[in-house]
């Protein structure tokens, strides 16, 4: 669980796995544009790709929410 709360590792995952391959544009950006355009022609592998490249950003969003919303346990 400590790994999922480490800012440095999550940020590194976003910069590497989240954005790779970088050229001609970040892969996740291309997939998000495809989805915004109606996702026509997307196959199962494309959706898995979105999940794979988007997961580091989901973890980063989770960390931000944990930091912003005060815990009731404190």
UniProtKB/TrEMBL annotation:
The transmembrane segments are: 48-69
Say which domain of life the source belongs to.
Bacteria
Listed A to Z, the keywords are: Membrane, Transmembrane, Transmembrane helix
Question: Would you tell me the protein name for this molecule?
Answer: RND transporter
Name its species.
Aequorivita iocasae
Species classification = Bacteria, Pseudomonadati, Bacteroidota, Flavobacteriia, Flavobacteriales
């Amino acid at each position: 669980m400590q790994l999922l709360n480490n800012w440095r590792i999550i940020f590194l995952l976003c910069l590497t796995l989240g954005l790779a391959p970088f050229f001609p544009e970040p892969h996740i950006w291309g997939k998000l544009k495809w989805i915004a355009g109606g996702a026509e022609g997307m196959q199962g592998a494309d959706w898995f790709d979105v999940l794979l490249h988007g997961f580091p950003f989901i973890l980063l969003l989770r960390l931000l929410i944990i930091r912003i919303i005060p815990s009731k346990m404190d």
